[in-house]
Structures are given as C-alpha cells and as structure tokens.
Amino acid sequence: MTRYIDQFIRNEKERERAAMAEELAARFAERAARHDREGSFPFENFADLKEAGYLKLTVPAEFGGDGISLYELVLLQERLAYGDGATALAVGWHLGQVFHFSVADKWPRSLFAELCESVVRDGTMINTFASEAATGSPSRGGKPETVAVHADGGYWLTGRKTFSTLSPILDRFVVTAYVPNENAVSEFLVRRTEQVKLVETWDTLGMRATGSHDVVLEGAFVPESDRIKGKEVNDGGGWLLHIPACYMGIAMAARDYALEYARTYQPNYLDKPIASLPAVQQTIGEMEAELRTARTLLYAAADRWDREAEQRPSLKPELGLAKYTVTNHAIRIVDKAMRIVGGASLAKSCPLERYYRDVRAGLHNPPMDSSVIQTLAAAALEEGSSRQDCSF
C-alpha cells in the first residue's frame, strides 16, 4: 500500500532524494532525544548531511550543486524533520538562504560563487543573523542596533545578535547592521575571527538542538568586498517555506506514532486495540483532515512559486497562508496524537513529548501569524473592483 507521505513525489529523481532524506532522518531520530535533553548541538548530524551531499542541494548547478526546486526543498525538509525537527530547521536555514541568495541575485557574483564552491567542496554553511534583543524579529522592521562604522577598506562591526541558528558550526555568516554615515541598513558577510564571540544562551522549551545562541561582534572587520548591497529581486519569500515543511514533518511523525499506538495498544478491558473505538477513530479522522488540508496547501504553494516566476512578488499572501495554516494545523495534529496515546505521551521517553514542544516553535518563526493575517487583509483590500453599487 502506498504511504501517504509519498503522495507528493512526482518522479524517480525525487523518490531517490526522498529516500536519502529518510535514511538520514532515521539516523537522526536515534540521537534526537539525547540532544534535546542536553540542549547540545548535533555536530554528527551535520557531518552526515555533508557526507550525503545534502548541504549542496540548493546550490545552483552552475556552481556544482543540485539546484533543486522549492517543491523539492519542501519534500526533503519535511522528511528530515520527521526524524529530528531541530536538525531539519537548522539546516533548513542554510538551504533556504542559499536558495534565496541565488534567486534574489543580491550578492556580488564573485562572492556568491566563492560561497557556493565552498559549500560544494567543504560543506560550508551559511545563515543570516538579523534578530536582536532590542529590535525583536527583523520581519517587524526594527532598525538593528548592530553598527557598521566605515574604515579604510571596509567596516568595523559591533553589536549582538540573538536567535543565531547554526552559530556553533558556522565559519561565516551574514549580519544586518546600521551604517551611520549613510543612515542606512545593510548586510555584511562576516567571517569568524577573535572579534566574533559565541555566547551560549540557547536554553529553550523546544528546538533545543538548533544552536541558536547569541553572537557578539566586538569590532569585527569586514572588507568592502564582503558588503552585500546589490539591488534585491523580490522573490516573494518562497524560500521561507522550509519552515512550515519542518513543522509538517514533525506533525507527520506524531500522526504515525499515534496510528501505530492505536493499532497495537489493547487495554485488558477491550477485546480489540483502541483503533476500534469510535472516539479514537473520530480523533484520527480529525487529525487526517488537519494534516491533508495543510499539506496540500503547502505543496500547492511551492509548486506555484516554481512555475510562476514572474508572479512571485504577488505570491507573498499565498506563501504566508501556507506557513500560517501548516504551523497551526501541525500544533493541533500533535495535540490530537497525544490525546490518542493518553498520559503516556507526557513521558520524556515518548517522542510525542518532544514533538509537542518543538512544533510550537513554529509560531515564532517568520512570517508570524499576525503579519500573515495583515498581509491577507491588505491583499484583499487592494483588489481593484469594477463592480457598481447594487441597488435593491
């Protein structure tokens, strides 16, 4: 019988890559509980990702990567998160950033080529650090307090970034900073030196193994050539679908755990497993409705972004809706899975307990629910209308 998770595989190449992601996910699942308990960064998972060629999936083919589509990125990230949500979310930022850089065409070509070749050759990873304690989420538009002071041949950067996912393993990253003499905000490629400090602050309810510590810049020098100031192509933010893909994968894992439990658990007052109970079947049906609705919307949004390149800027409401729907449905799916399993789902030895904590992190990843709702409202209000007032 065909597995539901395979429903959106379209061809043999996607099937091969999906199998690779599932093999990695199975390996990561065995380590996930330990890293969650310790709050430790899973360096061995990233060594496996590098060896499998996973880190170069979104590098354009011209630079030696696989150049996968957004649809494929969603397909693979969902499977990786099935095994370990924290690892999937962390590597998703790297894959998504490289994907975005290649489409937005903002980087100087030579600098982007150097990054891509390093990813392919050395397994280098990248992320953008924009969040700060005083400004909150960068998606809200706050001006960074990190400052880039112009100097001969470059800039001195000073400031502190929060939510710096992948920080324990990166040797370079992008930083947003305010440039006082220009009264402007810009991005800089920072390479790790003695002026870059990692402060291990990440101790959270969920997604405990993403390594999202604080990064402190103490006069880190960035040469003029590493400033990223090209005009950015508006891609609608399609790359951010790596985020809901992660939470969909966690929800799928919770759903499958609950289904297996319902098929096999038979208390001594029943002559059949609890899957035979109408109340349990009702909850399973509700769980399926949530899951299939969200998943269909997610893949439809990714496919449309791939196919309609010229329309990408106008797809922002649809892409935001996919994230909003998937994240909130995923939370409810995990909740229903726990209701099926009962009190045993609260035990640290049960993966549902970790899924419950991890899946809630999606509410705090961009775009936030309130921003999505506002974007949808604005899109509706901006629609031109040729209708005349109706008289009755």
Q: Would you write up a description of this structure?
A:
The chain has helices spanning 12-38, 43-52, 70-83, 85-104, 109-122, 242-264, 278-307, 316-341, 351-359, 369-382, and strands spanning 128-129, 147-151, 154-164, 172-179, 184-191, 196-199, 213-223, 227-228. 48% of the residues lie in helices and 13% in strands. It starts with 11 loop residues before the first helix and ends in a 10-residue tail after the last helix. A hairpin with a 4-residue loop joins strand 4 (172-179) and strand 5 (184-191). The strands form two sheets. The chain has a four-stranded mixed β-sheet with strand order 1-4-5-8, with no helix packed on it. By secondary structure, it is an alpha+beta fold. The chain has three domains: 4-122, Acyl-CoA dehydrogenase/oxidase, N-terminal domain (Butyryl-Coa Dehydrogenase, subunit A, domain 1); 128-228, Butyryl-CoA Dehydrogenase, subunit A, domain 2, CATH 2.40.110.10; 238-380, Up-down Bundle (Butyryl-CoA Dehydrogenase, subunit A, domain 3), CATH 1.20.140. One of its GO terms (molecular function) is flavin adenine dinucleotide binding. Keywords: FAD, Flavoprotein, Oxidoreductase. Residues 13-98 form the Acyl-CoA dehydrogenase/oxidase N-terminal domain. Pfam families: Acyl-CoA_dh_1 (PF00441), Acyl-CoA_dh_M (PF02770), Acyl-CoA_dh_N (PF02771).
Provide tags for this entry.
single chain, 392 residues, alpha+beta, Butyryl-Coa Dehydrogenase, subunit A, domain 1, Butyryl-CoA Dehydrogenase, subunit A, domain 2, Butyryl-CoA Dehydrogenase, subunit A, domain 3, 3 domains, four-stranded mixed beta sheet, 8 strands, 48% helix, globular, flavoprotein, AcylCo_DH-like_C, Acyl-CoA dehydrogenase, flavin adenine dinucleotide binding, AcylCoA_DH/ox_N_sf
